[in-house]
Design brief:
homooctamer, 147 residues, alpha/beta, Rossmann fold, five-stranded parallel sheet, globular
Chain lengths: 147, 147, 147, 147, 147, 147, 147, 147
């Protein structure tokens, strides 16, 4: 089966590239989707395309909705959703994506350091795998992609 | 219409009581659901009922899943889901609930301080109202409950 | 069967009252839902509860979303959706409600003057009845409520 | 991701061509669907294929239903639905399409002049972007199509 | 469990009354729905409420749609759909109801004489019980209503 | 859009071939599905593959279910379902397919002679087009396949 | 919240009564559903109501389908499904119920002795709680029924 | 139609190969999916990728969930699910897959020896074909793949 995998969450390390490279080396027929991971353009896209806003709330609102056109479409097409939580920032969008994925019947894989186990327990509880490293995700994808 | 409203998120202030009281005073035909908000029993329920665990991960896992029996059932029955984010803790379960609610087609109301606008922009973007106080939620419930 | 009927659309004549009265006289076990039909409070509710806006767009946006909490919940609960189009105003919200109703599998009844047949042809095409008067809707409700 | 975008609404200006051209220049992997935009053949198709009608209502009815075979199929396949409202005509079919799109979980982009903000507030409230020009839609499609 | 049972199909014998009576005698908590079974009013309702038609097709069309408001609503609410085929008439509406019921995930019980086995084989194939008499349906309802 | 069209119903005339040929001549990107239309093998397939039965009911049952593997899969994949009713036989399977198609949200086209209007009124009422000839279906498919 | 709990699986011990009694003592607002647990009448119901069969396969087939009218209806209404596996018999129907429950989005609680952990690992993996005794189920129901 | 067929259940004989070979010889356009059928790697995958566990329950849990990423994805994509029950082991995962398949609207084919008819009666009751040999499955696939 040719899986579609959506890579959601933390955007400050190269975990997506590590997964893509590991999968490319193994030559697996997997398609990856991801959000726009360029922080600045993701924050500015709303006002850049649709016009300036005085209030930060509406600026954020316009950007988030344009990003949601992409992320909602990708979530709906994906078979598997991988969500990584880093050690910084609130990352509520990552948990929000995880909630949507589960309610849509997608297979959820979570990635985070062991220190985050307690605050992520509700997300982990509905995941199919809780990993710590991109390599573990690659191993899972290799395993489930066997002929 | 007699709404069912699920009150999700922050458990350290009395915001749920304020909403319930405001609605009771207005005599509105609204049923409220909420998660178990007693932090300790919520954390311990898994090992208390199902037996001890050595690893914190599995202790959390068992508790979270028992709590999910309640929260998933309530989310499915609710018409409206109110999610409050406080100023402390990670609160990823709150964002996870919000994601599930949106994907299930529920009407989402978010409550948080203005300082949290930027990290909550993706959640706010798919909400029907972004409030700051329990009184505002009461006002919305009054407004939509007019005959 | 005890139907739930949502009365959507035009808010400047007393068509809803005529239907309610006709049904009450016939003593039918029908529950009616309707949007908030007080034009001013419907337009102002967003800024009144959630705070002022400089731009008309965001003022409208906040109000429309609060109204959508009510209308979306009612649409989801309804068995039958009656949408009336009057001879004034754009009434795009009425057509929007009709589209949602059809996609949700609800039974759609449309009410409008014959002069509006051509511009409403796509809405009428997916309706179960196209009426001109509240009395016709009452007659339909009587007919389908026979024991 | 290769999006499917349905272009609904106003048929009297060349906004669809502008979007198609802008996307073609940017070489994006997007498939566009649109209704039959030739007004006369769209109005006549029912009686031309299925036989004459004396009453305008049934003439319109037959045509609208044949057109709905196309538009319903396209709405179901689309990821994104763009609906443009012009400054003339009732355009209730456009609002009806928007309502169906939202209820089907599609990502809605609306396009209209600022003068139409108030009557379109309920439609805008459930859209992911409210644009004024085809160029803005092209910019959004470019942004969400980044690798 | 308190079942809702929709009794569809043949309207020229008293099979519905026999089932209702058998169930009433057994004092079972079952709610029965049925279409309007008065043939003439069912055929005339469209033109009587919505106005005359010259062509038989449109006369039938208007009546069938008004009847569908009732039957579609009942099918959606029902747990169990019983469809009886008699020995006369085409009864395509009965088979049509059966098809809708199966696709909606309802439990289908069919009732017909053994002579109709071959032409009804596709309907029977997706039914949970194929009966010949109202008494058998009553027995099934008694059996499944045990505490 | 490249439609998938399921051709259901009457198997004793060459209407399917006429539609396929008309569409092939017009070079339309349409995929056709159809049930197994060889009457004898369709009736015998159950006992031939799965073993003999003494009772006609079970012989029919086994065959119908194997045929349903095909027809259910095709109905689920189709965008449009064309159902033709001939002038002979009960054809309840055709009406059953039509009911399933409508409940699955497929676009239904019915084909039958005018003499069958009254007994087919409930099926016609939920169809998007009621045709009399294969040529009319071809014309509809040409019309909706315009670029 | 007033939960509906379906008690599926093993029928040779009094585990259902223990759960019902524990819940009754705690005065919880829970409604319990269960299959017909009288083994003989469950096996015989098909031929008793619908007529004798020579082949055991068809005898079983008719009974199982009548039982499915009850169990499918109850599964669809339930919020929570408890499935107990005993130490005897194949109990494939229990695992089949569990599979249906999970695919329908119900909250699954499994009950079995520790010796059955390995063969039940796939079922346990998608459960919200894996218990060993009726008392544990009662404790969970008490916990999630707190106000 | 190009079917996707998921081959679930017993992993100790070569029934999957027999079906694949029979279908390859007949040159049918069918795609087959199957679980990981290497017993040891399937049991060990959880601890191998995600780390050791002391308790057998959690070892099994981690493996089963990783396997579920594959099997759930395949079940969702499949048109037809074939489940074989062998004469050894509990095989509750096979019955669990069958339950999920039915609830997802997939066409179920069961394969087992006649001796297992009674314990599998509930599964068989909701299947579209009950076979005993791989050759019978091949014959069914040939039959339904006719042009």
């Amino acid at each position: 089966m040719e899986y579609i995998v959506y890579l959601s969450g933390e955007i400050h390390t190269d975990w997506r590239e590590q997964i893509r490279e590991g999968v490319a080396e193994a030559n697996l027929p997997i398609t990856f989707y991801s959000p726009v991971t360029h922080h600045e353009s993701s924050d500015e896209v709303g006002v850049e395309i649709l016009g300036e806003e005085d209030k930060p709330f509406w600026k954020d609102h316009k950007s988030s909705k344009i990003n949601a056109i992409r992320t909602n479409s990708m979530l709906q097409q994906a078979d598997i959703v991988v969500v990584r939580f880093g050690d910084k920032y609130k990352q509520w969008n990552a948990a929000f994506d995880a909630g949507q994925a589960v309610a849509m019947g997608k297979q959820l894989i979570v990635m985070h350091a062991p220190e985050l186990t307690h605050p992520l327990k509700e997300v982990d509880a509905q995941a199919m795998a809780v990993t710590e490293t991109p390599q573990q995700v690659v191993e899972i994808l290799k395993y489930i992609s066997q002929p």
